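Q: What structure does this chain adopt?
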Amino acid sequence: MIFGRKRSSRSEQILILGLGGVGFYLAKRLIDDEHSVTIIEADANLIARADGQIDARIICGDAMSIKCWQEAFAASMDYMIAVTDNDAVNMMAARIADRFGIKRAIARIRSLEFGQPDSLLSAEDLKLDLLIHPEELVSQEVVRLIQINSGNEIIELAEGEVQLLATDISNSSPFAGKTLQEISQNYNSFPFRAVAIARGIRTIIPHGQQKILPGDHITFIVCRSHLEKIMELTATEQKRQQKVILLGGGAVGCRVAGLLGKTVAVTLLEQQEERAQELSGLLEGVELLHGDGSTMEILTEAGVQAADTFVACTEDNETNIMTSLLAKHLYGLKDEDEEEESKKRALKTIALVNKEDYLILAATTGTDVALNKKVLAANEIVKFIRRREFRAVAHLHGFDAEVVELVAEKKASITQKPLSKLDPIFRDKLIIGAICREGKWLIAVGDTQINAGEPVIVICPSNLLKDVRKLFIG
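A:
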């Protein structure tokens, strides 16, 4: 049975230390991928929360207890992943894993003093195969989104030959109110496909009769040579950033301001006076404002109406989401002489959202991109573990969907008939976005038939990725 729960012969034995935000989310992802997961956690409340929600063996005990490691059969593990809240424990766990003979060790470490090119102790010194800095991951992602496309997400696949564009559908969009089949018939001068739709809190893997609605957040797949054309059709701007406003001077806000450097004008809003003074000595060329950035008065003083991107990166979910909405509202209050300019561009908002349940909601209520440190950290770990099965993996922000590059094996189910003739069970479950044939990437269509050995880009719900993989196995 293709979409069953039978454990794959390719599954790994994985030991996770810590059942906090990253550990819990990571365990769910790995179990969905049909790996065997064992967890060591000392907090009985966290164990009670996980009970009945994840199919994992959980040991109540200290991550530094050798007896707990022995009880977990550590010597038989393929991976050890340390994601406790203590950097020292996570680093020491890698040494213990090495003594138990665990082949690969991964740790979350918040401090940037370790694992960097110029650090006293490198990842190799720490016996780590992968070292994750959550705050650095989200900071780098914010900067990438700012530099690439004003908050509209563009992801490069296949060494840049294939592009994914995530953008909103407005009331005036030529796609609004039309089915995908009608769109393909009316706009056929170049090949492209809609591969995922975020509508409300749902993610839709669309089919030909799916109707596009105003307010939908859609990901399109297109070859690099046609990226500008799809951006023109969707009225997606790709303009140079001039002014960025950051709300919150914590680890992420400070790092983003530092990474942006002097490439754009940056205004950082910090409510705590002591922290604001500290930041003034750390950040050169950044305008610092002390005050409550969630108020209309401070946002107006910061110049939100002249900004290109607003980034809410406090530690409070509700503040980040609601201030993003407020910033968009204030941006819309233009003077009459600015009305024409306002039509040409819109404020893009990026919010740090630490609660997974709020991610898609935030992305569909006015926030252009919602980022979660735990999800980004877990995605990096999952990507590392999947690397022997998938040539590339990407996660779409605001969508419960994965993008992977697979290669079809001989006699694989996916090679037996054209895409349009695949079993109806796959409707709403996957889309073949692109295929590499004779060294050239092509957007896949209904009459495309995949041959053995051809790389393929697939989009599917996160929890079905392992099942989709079976279609490509001979």
